[in-house]
Amino acid sequence: MPQQLGKTLIVMPAYNEEEAVAGVVREVLGTLPGITCLVVSDGSRDRTVERASAAGALVLELPFNLGVGGAMRAGFRFALLNGFEHVVQIDSDGQHNPESVPKVVAALSRSDVVIGARFAGEGDYAVRGPRRWAMRVLALVLSRIARTPLTDTTSGYRGAGPRAIALFAENYPAEYLGDTIESLVIAARHGLSITQVPVSMRARAGGVASHAPFKAAVYLARAGMALLIALVRPITPPRSVTA
Amino acid sequence: MNAVSYAFSIVASLAALGVVVERLRRRRLRERHAVWWLAAGFAALVLSVFPGLLEGLADLVGIQEPSNLAFFASLLVVFVVCVQYSAELTDLEDKVRRLAEESAIATLRLRELERRVTGHQGADDAAVRRPARGVAAGPGGPTGPSDD
Questions:
Q1: What residues of chain A lie within 8 A of the CB of B140, using their CB?
Q2: Interface membership of A18 toward B (CB under 8 Å)
Q3: Cα distances (angstroms) measured from residue A167 to each of A113, A182, A228, B38
Q4: Are β-strands A36-42 and A8-14 bridged in parallel, bridged antiparallel, or unpaired?
Q5: Do B97 and A78 touch (CB under 8 A)?
Q6: Are A190 and A160 within 8 A, CB to CB?
Q7: What pLDDT is stored for residue A218 in this prediction?
Q8: What is the pLDDT of residues A201-233, one digit of tens each?
Q9: Could you say which of B123, B140, B145 has the minimum Cβ distance to residue A58?
Q10: What span, in angstroms and rounded, lies between the C-alpha atoms of B9 and A159?
């Protein structure tokens, strides 16, 4: 278990998460000794920065809200500039169990991108109704593109190896759903290998995911559009970092 | 077309050109944004002075009502300019995003360096280790957001 966690960076995008962030940071640092935890405050207007910092995390403070994708690219840039070899993204609301991080990091020795999948048999997380169908369709399409079976393509629990970090530090979409769907397409089209490992999830601390059919349809439409645009985009080779 | 409408169309296109030139002169408009408006204003002026030209052009492309050609051309110009602005906006958003990232990374680095220089010990645990190189990752101290 104590593999290369010293070169692993946990990145947590956080937007106004003062309630949960400190607990999650402490849990991460307690569960994974030797790991570095970076909280990217995405233009938070509450005490997220102080709480995360007091809990022992490094904090990147974006001056305004860029969305999850924007926060993640900042995290990838930080990882690249500071020589980290693995980045594992975890939600700051406590939904993701840090005990699965070593599993994700272990999988990164074989693949460039690892998705922590929620429906792969572990944990007690379930989504029902139209939103589940929408996610199924997405998973099917993305599995074809990534040439590997994927069941949970919108999971925010994911790991990136050195090649993926270099790519994502330049090339991580900030659009809605870009951080999950388009980033996978970008990785696949740049020839990175993608795999998924089952991770355990907990029910969300606050807020309930929507199951309304209309919202699911809108979600699928936006996802489909993100997917189509991602597929026709020209491939840009990652530039070298200019620090 | 009577004399009043003839004069009116000339005055209108002169006024449009005047607004653009004046903004250009006072540097309130950059040349690359102004070029479409200048072209459109100039075309409008020429067509106002020589209305026969518009009729000839309309005849050439098979449009019966010359004013429809004028409307179509105006819409085309507005469309092109709007698309150009959307593209510029996207470019600007990308640049702002990059700056925000750089600023956040530089702020974190500065904070950690300051902590090292002043030898300030964070009040909290030392669970945060140093990354491989670059920024020294000291323990996260109780420094708030540095909006100073």
A1: 52-59
A2: no
A3: 11, 13, 20, 42
A4: parallel
A5: no
A6: no
A7: 82
A8: 776 544 445 456 777 778 788 888 888 888 888
A9: B140
A10: 64
Query: Cβ separation of B127 and A54 shorter than 8 Å?
Result: no
Per-residue pLDDT, A203: 63
**B137 touching chain A per CB within 8 A:** yes
Identity of residue B129: R
Contacts of A176 in chain B (CB under 8 A): none
Contacts of A66 in chain B (CB under 8 A): 97, 100
pTM of the entire predicted model: 0.79
Distance from CA of A33 to the nearest CA of B (A): 7
The residues in A 179-198 lying below 8 A from B, measured between CB atoms, are: none
Q: Does the CB of B117 have a partner CB in chain A at under 8 Å?
A: no
Predicted local confidence at residue A209, as pLDDT? 52
A4-232: CATH, from 3.20.20.80, 3.40.50.720, 3.90.550.10, 3.30.450.20: 3.90.550.10
Give the nearest partner residue to A36 out of B103, B104, B137, using CB atoms: B137
What percent of chain A lies above the pLDDT cut of 70?
86
Output the CA torsion sign for B66, B71, B72, B73: positive
pLDDT tens for B39-92 read 999 999 999 999 999 999 999 999 999 889 999 999 999 999 999 999 999 999
Please answer whether residues A78 and A10 qualify as being in contact, where contact means their C-beta atoms are separated by less than 8 angstroms: no
Q: How do residues A166-205 score in pLDDT, each as one tens digit?
A: 999 998 888 777 778 889 999 999 999 999 998 877 765 4
